[in-house]
Amino acid sequence: MSEIKAFAEQLKKKIEDAEVVGIISHKSPDGDNLGSLEAMWGCLNGMGKKVIYVSNDDVPADFAFLPSTKERVDISTIKEPLRLLIALDSSDAHRFGSKGEALFEKAAYTVNIDHHMSNDAYADLNCVLPKATSTGEVLFQVFEAMDIELTPAMATGLYTAISTDTGSFQYDSVTGDTHRMIAALYDAGCDHNIVVRSVYQSMSKGKLALHARVLSDLKFMADGKVSLAICRLEDMERTGAPKDATEGIVEKARNIDGVEMAIFLKEKAEEVKLSFRSKSYLDCTEFASVFGGGGHIRAAGASQGDSLENVLAKVEALVREKIENRDR
Ligand SMILES: [Mn+2]
Questions:
Q1: Which residues form the signal peptide (predicted)?
Q2: How far apart are CA 89 and CA 25, in angstroms?
Q3: 57-81, pLDDT tens digit by residue?
């Protein structure tokens, strides 16, 4: 029996035996996380279960179109340990935040469905496929193995997940199977237009102002092979942009002729967040791991509890060491 089939059978049995099923997002939830949760929400409802959708952070405006996001309950209102709790697109239990992690540890039985290479199989039942583009792609295969029929809403959730985690099907991880799954999502009635409008064509004016400000100060290193974008606390304040408005800046910095890798530094009150994106030969995880982070070859991230100036100096030294010296 295939790994997915065995997992799917166990999961189906656990769900059938449960009256109430919890699902939990991670901190700073993204499209793969919220889209996969939308699909799981629909699956559990279709199986006649009461679902508790645990909220441990705000939903970015781009993803508020997913109907299940309106059903989220604040984590502080959940007093009893959950019998069954399912996590999606979360590489480890710290991703749930401290309250979420405590809730996860107290749950009687936990499930982890994911695609991060660094996932350490932290739940009682785990399905991790590191080659998959997205958790949406993993979940599609799990549903197929469970014999679950996709509703249009579930298909829209999975489309959101796969589309956002592949950079609209641009990443190397995309395969023929990815597109065959997308074809099946169209057949199941996914609303592709609402995803495009909400996720790709709804930039707020505050976000646009922030992107313009940060990109106007873009720096280049290593003969233009590396671009470096920096968002300081005052950039956020001056533009009044929402906290997730930096999303998309690093991709714009990468999408420049001659650039192989873009690095984005976001100054926060007590730390600096780093994002890396590459096009074809630099491995982003190699850079992110220097700062204790991780991710995928073409997209990785990290955070440092240090000043922007110190992190910037480290980044510049790293680029010199790994690229400028190597290319000589
Ligand atoms: Mn993902």
A1: none
A2: 8
A3: 999 989 999 999 999 999 999 999 9
Distance 93 CA to ligand 1 centre (A): 15
Residue 29's Cβ-count burial label (10 Å; 0-12, 13-18, 19+) is: buried
Both 152 and 236 in one domain: the answer is: no
- Give yes or no: residues 185 and 210 share one domain: no
Report how far ligand 1's centroid is from the alpha carbon of 29 (Å).
10
Residue where a domain terminates, one of 183, 200, 217? 200
Q: Quick: pLDDT tens for 262-306.
A: 999 999 999 999 999 999 999 999 999 999 998 888 899 999 999
CA of 47 to the centre of ligand 1 (A): 25
Distance from the CA of 115 to the center of ligand 1, in angstroms? 6
Distance 33 CA to ligand 1 centre (A): 6
CB atoms within 10 A of CB 2: 9
- Looking at the structure, do residues 213 and 232 belong to the same domain, yes or no? yes
Find the 215 Cα to ligand 1 centroid distance in Å.
Answer: 26
Per the structure, the complete domain to which residue 213 belongs is given by 205-324
Residue 321 Cα to ligand 1 middle (Å): 30
Task: Count how many Cα atoms sit within 13 Å of the Cα of residue 132 in the half-sphere of its side chain.
Answer: 24
Distance 132 CA to ligand 1 centre (A): 9
Give the C-alpha separation, 217 to 249, whole Å.
12
Ligand 1 centroid distance, CA of 74 (Å): 23
**What is the tally of structural domains in the chain?**
2
Same domain? 264 vs 194 = no
Amino acid residing at 30: D
Stated pTM of the model: 0.86
Ligand 1 centroid to Cα of residue 237, in Å, is 29
Residues 6+ apart with CB under 8 A from 87: 23, 24, 26, 93, 96, 104, 110, 111, 112, 113, 114, 123
